Amino acid sequence: MIYLDNNASTPSDPEVREAMAAAVELYGNPSSVHSAGRRARRAIEEAREEVALLVGARPEEIFFTSGGTESNALAIFGTAAGKCGRVVTSAVEHPSVREPVAALVAAGSDAVDVAPIRGGGMDPGSVVEAAGPGTVLVSVMAANNEYGGLYPIAEIARGLGDHGIPLHTDAVQAAGRVPIDVGAWGVDLLSLSAHKIHGPKGAGALYVRRGIPLQPHTPGGGQERKIRGGTENTSGIVGFGVAARLARERLPREPGEIVRRRDRLERGVLETIPGTTAVGAAAPRLPNTSAILFDDLSGEALLFRLDLEGIAVSVGSACSSGTLAPSPAILALGFPREKAKGVVRFSLSRLTTDEEIDRVLEVLPRLVAEARAARSRGSVHASAPG
Amino acid sequence: MRVAVAMSGGVDSSVAALLLKEAGHEVVGLSMQLWDHSSDSGRTGRCCTLDDLSDARRVAWTLDIPHYVVNLEDEFKDDVVRPFVASYLAGETPIPCLACNSKVKFATLWDRARAMGCDAVATGHYARVETDPASGRPVLMKGIDPDKDQSYFLYDLTAEQLAAARFPVGALTKVEVRAHARRANLATAEKEESQEICFVPAGTRPGEFVEASAPALGLPLPTVPGVVENARGERLGEHDGHFRFTVGQRRGLGVSAPERLYVISIDPAANRVVVGSAAEIDSREAEVTDLSFPSGERPIHAFRADVRVRHRAAEVPATVAPRADGTARVVFDRPVRAVAPGQSCVFYRGDVVLGGGVLRRFP
User: Fold this and answer.
1) CB neighbour list of residue A83: distance below 8 Å, 6 or more residues apart
2) Hey, how many other C-beta atoms are within 10 angstroms of the C-beta on A232?
3) For B288-309, how does the pLDDT look when each residue is reduced to its tens digit (9 = 90+)?
4) What is the pLDDT of residues B137-179, one digit of tens each?
5) Structural Rg of chain A based on CA atoms
6) Predicted interface score ipTM higher than 0.85
7) Contact A182, A228 (CB under 8 A)
8) CA of A53 to nearest chain B CA: how many angstroms apart?
9) Which residue of B has its CA nearest to A322?
10) Torsion angle (degrees, nearest 10) of CA B74, B75, B77, B78
11) Do A381 and B53 touch (CB under 8 A)?
12) For all residues of chain B together, what is the average pLDDT?
């Protein structure tokens, strides 16, 4: 299989798997005093250091969670719940940000969504402007999952200045793909997920700048500095730690290779297939992501067809039923609903090879042509009498 | 051959997929997400709930075939739900399953299937398609099981659609279908039937659904109350929305009378429901529009057929006189009870579906 859906999840690194297999033996409860507990505790704290290093934080500012969704919920509810103030987000956030914000709105908060500019970038000024008096949280993702847009978090932080408004960023897609420095960015909270950086599912973290008050949302045995109760997922956290270290070590050189392959794929598609547009390509974006709009085509049908050919891509955002809806992010960029349905996302990883790109470029023109032909015949059906 | 199977999560389409797979085809399971049920309370007897999708997925795992969920909510709303609500508001009693077949399953879904390289699309309908050896045209026929026959819901497929359609369970009885499902260990083998209109929540009447949905669809609701009259124009009472009534309905008229009263017609323009005695709901003839002939050949001259005016209604011999504009006058050999505008009149000759059209109110 040619796997080009790395924004959904990445294959775990062999080194990660090895470390996790060893960590499964660390059966002691990390809170236990005896040696079995201490061994598990040590493994977790070493992982915490690695995750902290990946984003330029201190270990005590890293709180382990079950993943990006929980980190986002913890950041949003932990800072803004019960305050009934204003929450400013971008209009292209992941559902794990949109839904907690919607819950806050239902409880009396008010929310402002700032749309990206048409080309795909985000104007930091609009975000700062929206964060008027009474704002209790600003949450803007560092990198968009659907088309890879990179947003100017540091500029937003500078614009917000020292007014005590916490700034959260969902950096789940950015981690391991672009350098993150919480100090330089000036963020107060930052969400991470292990499985987007070749680590395991079920492990994530929230960076919380020291001094930022956070209400705990899982009461229990006082783990994670009383912020997140529950016995730690030792092997998952260990895997996350290894993945974070590998990501940090690879960051200086690998994105260049990935971006070269991404660009070759994108150029090849745009040159050989008529009626194609690269979404947000003129704005800063992740090195690994290419969202391509195919005119007169159901992206869903192309996705299924590619799957039957052994090529894994993505369309829109997957829902619990496995169904696909037009991507809210693509709609927020100003594409009409019908066009948004023709967007297919290719997301590469360090494991993507030149041969795989060649193969995609070889089969895609034919598949697109066939899918389009089917569609134009279909419109005859739709207008047929009876 | 690569064949798409529309898998609803029911036993019939599950067995359709099973039989095609066993016949050696490359089978691709497609389930349609047509309607957001998240606001419904009742869940049984519905199509495309999360439970149904997961049933379809389990069957696909058992059969080891790829399975995809196709989101056709926009198309379903435009092509099925909106016309359904509009039809009720026009004083008719529509059949949404017809449009779901001819405009969604064998149109949009078939487009998707074709875009995926499929050569045919199969469903779990109890109907058969054969090819006329003389003309090469497809012939739509009733399913073998008379209790399950669904040809009434398929008569408006075009010849081109039928040429691509496969109905693998049409030659089986329901008992045989369940036996196949059990033998193959399909998770849906004992699953109950879905009978109601899939997008109307369980326990909700169509009229309530129409009332709740019309505003969001931009369709105006009539003012209430309206009047209930007899055929002589004598006012007998009031109603709270003509779209809550259907021709032939006896209960819930809100009118007391010495004899049993039935709805004999609905006049949306005058916001009027007309009631009458049992004798008054009998019709000798009917007007149909939107004629459709599955073979693709439109008859020019009047022809004889056995007709059904409702799903599962007894067939009545009749003469169908088509006109060039796609309408026809149907004259029944004996009176037919409760001919409801919006339902379809389907013409049969033996097991063969000759065609059909939509019943309309007499001008």
Assistant:
1) A109, A136
2) 21
3) 999 999 999 999 999 999 999 9
4) 999 999 999 999 999 999 999 999 999 999 999 999 999 999 9
5) 22
6) no
7) no
8) 41
9) B69
10) 110
11) no
12) 92
